[in-house]
Amino acid sequence: MWLRHRGEIMSAITENRKALLISPELCIGCRGCQTACKNWNQLPGQKTKNYGTMQNPPDLTPSAFNIIRYNEVPSDTNAVRWLFVSRRCMHCGDAGCMKICPAPGAIYRTKDGAVAYDKDKCIGCKLCVAGCPFDVPRYDAQGKISKCHLCFDRIADGLSPACAKTCPTGAIRFGDRDALIDTAKKAGYAKVYGEADLTGLGTLYAFKDAPKIYGMNENPAIPESIIFWNTVLKPLAVIGLGGVVAGALLHYVTIGPHKDADEEVKKHE
Amino acid sequence: MVRKASVEEIINHWILAGSCILLIITGYGFLFKIEQIYALFGSNITMKIVHNWAGVVFTVSLFATLFNYLHEALAYDANDWAWIKMGGGYLSKKHTVAPPMGKFNTGQKFYYLVILLAGIAISASGFSIWLVQDNRSLTLASHLTHNLAFVLFVMAVPVHAYLGTLANPGTLRIMIYGTVPLEFAKKKYPKWMKEIGKM
């Protein structure tokens, strides 16, 4: 029964898996991707405050599916090294949100490998927030999941996601996942962030430096408790119930119900 | 006839049992994303509402049991030890004479404490998942606790139901009428009968 949701974990060989390749060094921080995303997905703008940074909004919100993080890191050659890192749902091959989600059809895998969702089926439990290794899912005013879905509607029509389509420098590229990894490797990136993590991420990063300089987790993983729950507790909930019911039946036919002393006397008479 | 359970006790036990079974059914629905179970309730969101509010009913009902069983469930003597050693007499085909028990036997007292503790855990973690937001480690800990307690419930409740019906003919009427024949009570609860002066 618990094996029924095979779609949750993507097999290593998935034909047609699409992905985004983000190259921070190519990004000029224009935020065209943020605007294009809002445009296509009809997301409202929000009032934010100036916190002394160009980064705006400060983090992902229910109506900001992607943002550019403006990371300032120390540098020997310049006064400051400014890294623009586009952030959104990573479309994990083994997605923590899908694993923990209790509502059938609420978070699902598209045939292109995107992690999409159906707000009508979302029950608003917010467990996906706890299950995500990247702190991506947000909740809208109705308490429903809200995040990047890799523009699955555009992809289905042979178009690029809005962010990739609008990016003027090629910092966000969209295409077949395998091809994008090849491109990055040929361009001299020894490691592509997300190539193998969580059976491969659908948002890949070509980093020149250690991922943590770009504000990314070195070893992203689904929380241990969810892994334990998924591999041990879920089967146990079925085996345990089946076991005690079978045990009770077995007890009834072998040992039998409690007998009174009188009944036993009657039988001997 | 001897009154074993008061009317309030009977009603509360049915509420506890009913909400518990509803919670277990919807719980399996959540656990394995079983569309057929969701369909029973109309839509995904309806089942969540049913589960959450059945949880409220269960919690209140569990709290009410404190006044019925907690005092008894914490009292033990040498007879309880003897009862444990003979497995309550359930492990032998032959008629066995169990040590004299009070209103509840050792197994029932243990069962109550397990359900009380697991019930507190599953209620508290359930309310945490439902109501607390923006606290990832608390949500994860609650999710784990909720599921650990769930496994305990789905294993303990069927055993309790079996022992209260098929395994002990004549006991189900306590859940319905609250009374048992005097002779039956004298055999089952001699210590209690002596306490209330019927033996």
Strand order of the largest sheet of chain B: 1-2
Multimerization status: heterodimer
The shape of chain B is: elongated
Q: Biggest sheet of chain B, in brief?
A: 2 strands, antiparallel
Largest sheet of chain A: 3 strands, mixed
Q: CATH class of the largest domain in chain A, anyone?
A: Alpha Beta
**Between the first and last Cα atoms of chain A, what is the distance in angstroms?**
52 Å
Strand order of the largest sheet of chain A: 8-1-9
Structural class of chain A: alpha+beta
Q: In sequence order, what are the helices and strands of chain B, one letter per element?
A: EHHHHHHHEHH
Quote the average pLDDT of chain B: 95
Strand content of chain A: 5-15%
Low-confidence stretches of chain B: none
> Gyration radius of chain A, to the nearest Å?
25 Å
**Largest interface (CB < 8 Å):** A-B, 50 and 44 residues
Runs of chain A in which pLDDT lies below 50 for 5 or more consecutive residues are: 1-6, 264-269
Compute the number of helices of chain B: 9
Q: Share of helix among residues of chain B?
A: over 70%
Helix content of chain A: 25-40%
Short key terms for the protein model shown above:
heterodimer, A: 269 residues, alpha+beta, 2 domains, three-stranded mixed β-sheet, disordered N terminus, disordered C terminus, B: 199 residues, mainly alpha, two-stranded antiparallel sheet, 2% strand
Task: Write up what this structure looks like.
The complex is a heterodimer of chains A (269) and B (199). With 269 residues, chain A is of the alpha+beta class. Chain A has two domains: 6-221, Alpha-Beta Plaits (2-Layer Sandwich); 225-268. Helices cover 29% and strands 14% of the residues of chain A. Chain A has helices at 32-41, 96-100, 127-131, 152-156, 162-166, 177-186, 224-254, 261-268, and strands at 18-22, 67-73, 81-87, 107-109, 115-117, 138-139, 145-146, 172-176, 203-205. Chain A has a three-stranded mixed β-sheet. Chain A has a two-stranded antiparallel ribbon with strand order 2-3. Chain A starts with 17 loop residues before the first strand and ends with a helix. A two-stranded antiparallel ribbon of chain B has the order 1-2. In chain B, helix 1 (7-31) packs across helix 3, helix 3 (44-73) packs antiparallel against helix 5 and helix 5 packs antiparallel against helix 6 (136-164). The two termini of chain B are 13 Å apart. At the A-B interface, helix 3, helix 7 and helix 8 of A face helix 1, helix 3 and helix 6 of B.
